[in-house]
Amino acid sequence: MAFTPSRLLALALPCTLALVGCATQPMGPTVLVMPAPAKPFEVFQQDQAMCMQYAQSMVGGQAQAANERAVGSAAVGAVLGAALGAAVGNHQGAGIGAAGGAIVGTSAAGPSTSYSQGAIQYQYNNAYMQCMYARGNQVPRYMR
After folding, report:
1. Burial profile 83-111: b = 16 or more Cβ within 10 angstroms, e = fewer
2. What would the pLDDT profile of 12-56 be if each residue is shown by its tens digit?
3. Whole-number Å distance between alpha carbons of 107 and 109
4. Model's pTM, two decimal places?
5. Residue 61 backbone class (left: φ over 0; alpha: ψ -120 to 50; beta: rest)
6. How far apart are CA 57 and CA 50, in angstroms?
7. Partners of 34 in the β-ladder
8. Pairwise CA distance, residues 58 & 124, whole Å
9. Where would one find the signal peptide in this protein (predicted)?
10. Domain-by-domain residue ranges, the chain?
């Protein structure tokens, strides 16, 4: 079974796109916040739930946007690779170029997706801490 350009592209793109989209919405805060002195734990838990919901609303949709940018980079790499392969070689060169371009596009998009994940978590943590501080809880860097 010979690998035609269309078969190479059909194999390379789904694998490449599956590797790229990896940014996710934060599952919760990664910072420590303590209850205010004499605040009942049940009230603190209510504050936490409300502030986690607030923080989630502040970063909503950012993970999907980061993944879409990464997938776009991989797709652009595949198209450019195919164009370069066709210009240099023949139809087989186009398939090889597309596969190579998809791989290069993925390797370029991967670190940016990882950076985006960290930035989303940072924004989530900031929103969470602001909310918890406003509700009278103790945020380590911002003691009352």
Report:
1. ebbbeeeeeebbbbbbbbbbbbbbeebbe
2. 555 555 554 566 777 789 999 999 999 999 999 999 999 999 999
3. 6
4. 0.57
5. left
6. 11
7. 138
8. 7
9. 1-23
10. 5-16+41-134
